[in-house]
Amino acid sequence: MKRNSIEIVEVGPRDGLQNESLAVATADKLALIERAIAYGARRIEVTSFVNPKKVPQLADAEDLALGLPDRDDVTYIGLVLNRRGAERALAMGRIDELGAVCVTSDSFGIRNQGQSADDSLAAAIDIVALAKSAGRSSQITIATAFGCPFEGEIALTRVVEIAKRAADAGPREIALADTIGVGVPSQVAETVGRVREAVGDLPVRVHFHNTRNTGLANVWAAVAEGAATVDASLGGLGGCPFAPGAAGNVPTEDVVYMLERGGVATRLDLSAVIDAASWLTGVMGRPLPAMVSKAPIFPG
Ligand code: ZN
Which pLDDT belongs to residue 239? Predict the structure, then answer.
């Protein structure tokens, strides 16, 4: 059943930026985070604690974490892929939540994070335990849940099985990520529905890339099936350095427009999101993929 309200996680500072060749200054990333808080985001994926040689754009993770605004009402998420990353993130007092990632196929796992699918799930379960013992929250994202760039279709039974095992570890939520943007709404509806049945009361978050222009339709399908939280990135920035051809995340302003006009509250202030997108366009020095920020305000 469709919800009357959902939560948006702003992922621009991490997933949005990680694939950008333009080096973005830490101060600009912090300004982006401040703007996200100003437009109403209360959960923000701020960076990842991964090998800086593999993702140079996020090599400033520690400096960024030190500069995060001191806000009790905002949850800052740090993405981590292994124990070492988790320890780096937990050493930073302002990182409230660890985001762990497991994958559905060995081919993608080896390229994305140097782990087989099983090892990636074991690492994610380990990360949840580390977060727990440090008194922080954590969540597990299942990457390539709607298809793999190397192995093609991924059986839904496999996704459901991974979701069950991930849920047993006790994260705050399970996320389904369409890392390469191949999902379509009928598949999203079925997957979200089956995974929700499998994980009981645990909320389901969704993460879509707009590689094939199905991102917004997929958000709607997921929310209609009861997904509680939606990832989005300001302006539609984004991509994945390890997934060929991956395009940006679904744009925050487009998601807010669609959901709010469709009767689903997001708690984000659309005009403030659009202002922030125009600022970000200046920082990036090129037009961003989002549509709503380029169109006239409606209703006026
Ligand atoms: Zn992504």
Answer: 61
The stretch 112-130 carries a mean pLDDT of 95
Residues with CB under 5 A from ligand 1 (ion): 15
Q: How does residue 240 score in pLDDT terms, banded at 50, 70 and 90?
A: low
CA dihedral sign of residues 240, 142, 29, 63: negative
**Residue type, position 246, single letter:** A
C-alpha of residue 246 to centroid of ligand 1, in Å: 9
pLDDT tier at 229 (50, 70, 90 boundaries)?
Answer: very high
Q: Does domain 7-294 have CATH number 3.10.180.10?
A: no
Q: Could you tell me the distance, in angstroms and rounded to a whole number, from the CA of residue 107 to the centre of ligand 1? A: 17
C-alpha atoms less than 13 angstroms from C-alpha of 133 in its C-beta half-sphere: 8
Is 102 considered catalytic here? no
Spell out the domain ranges in the chain. 7-294
